[in-house]
Amino acid sequence: VESAIAEGGASRFSASSGGGGSRGAPQHYPKTAGNSEFLGKTPGQNAQKWIPARSTRRDDNSAANNSANEKERHDAIFRKVRGILNKLTPEKFDKLCLELLNVGVESKLILKGVILLIVDKALEEPKYSSLYAQLCLRLAEDAPNFDGPAAEGQPGQKQST
Fold first, then answer.
1. The pTM is what?
2. Which region ranges are annotated with the description Disordered (predicted)?
3. pLDDT value at position 97?
């Protein structure tokens, strides 16, 4: 097979044989005993077992993995909020408002996302805009405050009297 490659012939790994590679780009193969003849190694007891890149990435990028898990968790919370907003009617307001407050608003980022979802929903359904305004008021009263007590005297903030 190496002589066929050296002479310009197609190998079983070339892009022209349906390998899915891009034209002119160098081919990168996983290091396994099956293609060791192309990598200049001979298979033996020390031949590496192929490990999917997905599982090695999990170990190597623990910080990136944590942020990906956090993003997935935020997305799940936002999906729950959308579901609650889709069910919202004047009759179900109190029940769904409590459900929304217990959905997992744990950070300022999640709270901002929830508020943006409520505003978007109010723009989509002007018939229920007053209901969404009441929901925002309830969030302002009952949701956790992530700014802390130092933010009360800052300009641009609503001060209570």
1. 0.53
2. 1-72
3. 92
Alpha-carbon 27 to chain mean position: 30
pLDDT computed for residue 71 by the predictor: 86
Q: Which two tokens stand for residue 125?
A: 């359904």
Helix (H, G, I), strand (E, B) or coil at 106: coil
Closest listed residue to residue 75, CA positions, set 109, 126, 28, 118 = 109
**Residue 155 pLDDT:** 47
Q: Are 77 and 104 in contact (CB under 8 A)?
A: yes
CA atoms within 13 A on the CB side of 158: 3
pLDDT of residue 83: 94
Q: Do 78 and 138 belong together in one domain? A: yes
Q: What DSSP string describes 27-64?
A: P-----GGGHHHHT---STTPPPP--HHHHHHHHTHHH
Q: N- to C-terminal Cα distance for the chain? A: 84
List the domain range (segments joined by +) for residue 119.
70-143
- Residue 79, pLDDT > 60, answer yes
Examine residue 59 and state whether it is found in any structural domain, yes or no: no
Cα torsion for 148, 152, 157, 161, to the nearest 10°? 130
Report pLDDT for 50: 78
